[in-house]
Amino acid sequence: MNALFSSLAGQTVVALFLMICIGLAVGKIRVYGFSLGSSAVLFVAIVFGHFNVVIPKEISELGVILFVYAIGLQVGPRFFRIIRLNGISFLMIALISLFSALATVWICSKLFSLSAPLSVGIFAGALTSTPGLAAAKDVLQNPDVSVGFAVAYPFGVIGVVLFVQFIAGLKGTKEELQAEEKSSKSAVSAVQVKQFSVTNPNCAGKTLAEIDLHSMTKANITRVKRDNQIFMAHGDTVLQLDDVIRATGAAKELKKLEHLIGKETNVDLDVTWDIVSRDVFVSSPKIAGKSLQELEVKEMFGVVLTRLRRDEVEFVPTGATTLEIGDLIRVVGDKEDCERFVAIAGQQEKRIHETNLIALSAGIVLGAFIGQYPISLPGGVTFRLGLAGGPLLVAILVSHFGRIGRLNTRVPYAAKYLIREIGLLFFLAEAGSKAGGSFVQVFQEAALQIFLLGVLITFVSMLVSYFFSFYVFRLGRLASLGVVCGAMTSTPALGAAASSVESDTPMINYASIYPLAMVVVTVFSQILALFL
Questions:
Q1: Does 397 map to a domain?
Q2: Does residue 410 sit in helix, strand or coil?
Q3: CA distance readout (Å), 98 to 157, 517, 520, 522, 528
Q4: Cα separation, 352 vs 372, whole angstroms
Q5: Which end of the chain is less packed: N or C, by CB atoms within 10 Å?
Q6: Residue 524 and residue 377 share a domain
Q7: Residue 408 belongs to some domain of the structure
Q8: Cα–Cα distance measured from residue 496 to residue 289, given in angstroms and rounded to the nearest whole number
Q9: Which secondary-structure segment (H or E) carries 495?
Q10: What is the DSSP secondary structure assignment for residue 16, as one 8-state letter?
């Protein structure tokens, strides 16, 4: 065995991918429904490190940058939107629950004289946050951070899963959850389709352009039914009393439209033979980077774009909406008009999956540069965002705007997933191999303290997040389950919630608070590393 590890010590690339291969295989093993997933690479790397097979620091730096940059690209498109829509409640829950965990670590580390690296590692492990681990390791440059993370991590996963299953299984909870699910489905701000009868006399005899609906609502009118005839809605379409219109938009936008046009109706507006809808991916550079107003979509093509999906976000486009490569748009209009627009928009699959490597590389360079820039804090302390914080900040901003001048910064989902996973695995392999040299000694000296502190942090943060979401902000049990999973950055717990409760509400709220919690725990890990 020693001879095998000795031969691997000089073959960095082989050792790296062997750790990853074995780790991923171990991570797929499920025991009573639990599995370690990608984090198993850390534990396998610890074994390799114990036998002096160590991955160079540069591999870890590359991994950290790729991982957090991909995380930023993933959360950026909805990060500021979440703050705007649910920001105050979700941000408060994330800050309070994670601050309670930070305070618990601070107090216990002083009481039990635990080192700063171990304490910060326990903090990240109890919250199952690999970005937090990366941020702390970047600041402290000490392998004991990974040791603390490795000991606290397993219960960080198991504890939240057990808590979620306990809440979902309480007596009488199933009926309450079903009732909440029914009401929550109607409250979700997804794109909906409704029909309205024109009863407002102020709209009669006016064209849609004259009414200027988009100045009052972001809903789109796509079709009009008059007597037994159904036709497309254009800017020059004149509305008449008792017309029935079909509109798409978020629930609150359709409510505004109801006040402007008239009452909702159930009159059937099935598509006639000459009106079709097509879903098409934008792949043509001729229209990418241009707004619908610039393209004059209605005027030039006679079609209406009723929905647009970009990454994981779906919304109703308006004249100010800019199209980007990879956008999935729904086109409604006459068959010939739709075909003409689809031909312009393009359907080249290769273009959809292309990644602009210039924009990707420039963003990483800028993030690394910003991460090393010193920020002066009160008391003479100098703070840096580091290789975790800098790229994360730049990626959030870049993905939020989607374009800088003529430079398209969008990265396809598959590319983001690959970058994220490769970065994470590289980082875990190096972190584990460095921790392996001291893991046994530290484990023997303080394993019980580390484990118990990890359990305490997990429970404190978990209970605080549930208390504030359910009892203070009164989000309901379904929403609170998702908030707990998101605040704890625990995907396995979300899986447990999804399997225990037949509802999309936990996933919706998990996705809403998760980006906020991810950023907050990364920043808190750096603060803890600096001031502990």
A1: yes
A2: coil
A3: 16, 8, 8, 10, 12
A4: 34
A5: N
A6: yes
A7: yes
A8: 41
A9: helix 491-500
A10: H
Q: Are residues 92 and 138 in the same domain?
A: yes
327-371 pLDDT per residue, tens: 778 888 777 778 878 877 766 555 556 777 888 888 889 988 887
CATH number for 320: 3.30.70.1450
In DSSP terms, which residues pair with 223 in a beta bridge? 232, 246
**pLDDT, position 116:** 86
Residue whose tokens read 């909702």: 264
CB 493: neighbour CB atoms within 10 A?
29
| CA separation for the pair 372, 321 (Å, rounded) | 35
What does the block give as tokens for 115?
A: 């080192």
Q: Which amino acid is at 389?
A: G
pLDDT at 290 over 80: no
Residues in contact with 378: Cβ distance below 8 Å, sequence separation at least 6, in sequence order: none
* Same domain membership, residue 207 and residue 176: no
Q: Is residue 526 part of a domain?
A: yes
Identity at 108, one-letter amino acid code = C
Q: Dihedral sign, CA of 511, 514, 519, 522?
A: negative
Secondary structure class of 78 (helix, strand, coil)? helix
Look up tokens 């309480």; give the residue: 170
- Is the separation of the CB atoms in 116 and 529 below 8 Å? yes
pLDDT for the residue numbered 479? 77
Mean pLDDT of 8-31: 84
Q: What pLDDT does 186 receive?
A: 45
Q: Does 25 or 380 have the greater pLDDT score? A: 25
H/E stretch holding 407: strand 407-408
58-107 residue pLDDT tens: 887 888 888 778 877 876 766 666 566 666 788 888 889 989 999 999 99
What's the rounded Cα separation, in Å, for the pair 17 and 425? 9
Spell out the residues 6+ positions from residue 421 whose beta carbon is closer than 8 angstroms to its own.
38
Average confidence (pLDDT) over 448-470: 87
Q: What is the pLDDT of residue 312?
A: 57
Say which residue, 346 or 277, is predicted with more confidence: 277
DSSP 137-158: HHHH--THHHHHHHHHHHHHHH
Q: Quote the CA–CA distance of 168 and 26 in Å, as a whole number.
A: 29
Rounded CA gap, 487 and 479, in Å?
Answer: 12
* Residue 481 domain flag: yes
Q: Which domain holds residue 59?
A: 55-145+157-182+371-431+438-531
pTM given for the model: 0.59
**Within 307-403, where are the H helices?**
335-345, 349-353, 357-372, 386-401
> H or E element: which one contains 220?
strand 220-226
Query: In sequence order, what are the beta bridge partners of 207?
Result: 238
User: For residue 21, what pLDDT is reported?
Assistant: 92
Type and span of the H or E element at 418: helix 413-467
Same domain for 467 and 518? yes
Q: Is the dihedral angle over the CA atoms 414, 417, 420, 422 positive or is it negative?
A: negative
Distance between start and end Cα atoms, the chain: 40
Task: Give the SS3 label for residue 65.
Answer: helix
